[in-house]
Amino acid sequence: MEDKDKKALLKLARESIASYFSDTEPDTAKVAHLSEKQGVFVTLHKHGDLRGCIGFPYPLYPLYKAVLLAAREAAFGDPRFSPLTQQELDEITLEISVLSVPEELKVKTAREYLGKVRIGSDGLIIKGMFGSGLLLPQVATEYKFTPEAFLECVCQKAGMEKSAWQNLSNRIFTFHAEVFNDGKRSRKRVGKSVKKRGK
Predict the structure, then answer these.
(1) CA separation for the pair 130, 80 (Å, rounded)
(2) How far apart are CA 52 and CA 67, in angstroms?
(3) Is 118 helix (H, G, I), strand (E, B) or coil?
(4) pTM for the complete prediction?
(5) Which CATH architecture has domain 3-100+177-198?
(6) What average pLDDT score do residues 123-136 get?
């Protein structure tokens, strides 16, 4: 993605939050050409701490629309945090992760996952009978996870036992992400919240 498009999407994400306070809609004219459907997550940080993160793991919306929706949900709909206030807006940095389509890892034994999960490149999704969870690729890098620790963490994100990845009835998917943000910061990450309709 070109730098000008990244900047335009970051501007759209911020304007989608700011316009919520005035009950208006942001101008999408400069990003309307980014119409290919793609999965996306928008992450908010305040002084280096996570302040909200919501996204769509699968390509449900045109990219610009997904960014607009995810930004607003990250600001006002993440159940782990109180809704963002207008006074906080200038203290927030935004990060956008544009996702590739998740692909299921096919294995005959669970231990094969350890050779297939690539730290620094792959994000993870686990899907089971009673829930699912997702972690972006940068989480593993920042916490210096091994493949096994990354698998355990995504299981816990899904509300499962950390060994649930060893049960082949649970499905493991990987994806990649193009990540860009609108400011430098000291980042402290926790697991990502997954929008229900994006599971």
Answers:
(1) 20
(2) 14
(3) coil
(4) 0.87
(5) 2-Layer Sandwich (3.30)
(6) 94
